[in-house]
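Appendix B. Raw example, untouched.
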Amino acid sequence: MQATMSFRTTALAMAALIALPTAARAQDQTVRLEGSAVAVYNLAGRISVSPGSGSDVAVTIRRQGSDGERLEVQTGPVDVRRSNWGTTPSLRILYPSDRIHYEDLQGNTELRVRDDGTFWGGNGWRDGDRVKIGNRIDGLDAYADLDIAVPEGKGVYVALAAGTIEARNVNGDLFLDTGSGSISTTGTRGELSLDTGSGDVTVDGADGDVYIDTGSGDVIARNVRGPDLSIDTGSGNVRVEGAESPEISLDTGSGDVTLLGARTGEVSVDTGSGDVEIETVAGSASISVDTGSGGVSVSVPGDYRGDVRLETSSGELHTDMPITLVRRSEDEIEGRIGEGGSARITIETGSGDIEIRRS
């Protein structure tokens, strides 16, 4: 009898061990969204975006945390409240609390969330209930990691209040927003719009329009090709390598700006405080640089042709390109490189040296 009970106890223990992985897998859920463009909303977690097959965007949800089973998944059309989006098929993760504990978030963040689980857009700063998320908050211990599979040619808008987003090899339009966290993309094709309130952004290989906006964080973009490249950061360094675009616009409130190996017709750089380095490697691009404080270095091809206007309140001019002087004042020089032309180099710095070199 004793041996029988021992056997039963062992069998029950083994059954429990075998059941654990099954229970963990039960937390996973895959939802398919129909439509040429879809929206996904989640308050906390990690999101990966990758190529998908078939005609629908597939979202796999992995509930995490001790309260993860309390998260609810809702689908259906919502007003994205983002320009040119309107009412869109969507997936939303609903959190049954206004206080969310998320261990991976350093510090806290706060936002307003509507009853349908959407946030931001329109009057998002005052529309909905206040929700706090952070690693030191006592509250709902739950978050959701999402894997989003995107078929070719689809558009996806992702809104994530806290966490990281990573996209790889997607052929479709991506609009990725996170309130606090980093965004990285690799090998994308189609329009790429990336926005983070606080966090670094990395783009490695993109074919299509690229728009990057960050309140605070560094931006690195490599091998970007498309009609338009625009980067705006409130505070952070910007580095772009190997860009090919008719127009390149780089703007940072405070931080260095570096543009190397660019093939473009027009470059605009604006920084409140920081050094600027620009290198174009083909043709005669129009280059405009405005920095409140910082040195500026511009390298152009040896056969460059264009007009030049250089202004610095405190700094020196260095050049190995022959500049024909047209007008000179105490802190300003106007002239031309080669025979001049429609291209123009305009540099203004409140304090800093200016260099013009051959690339």
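End of appendix B.
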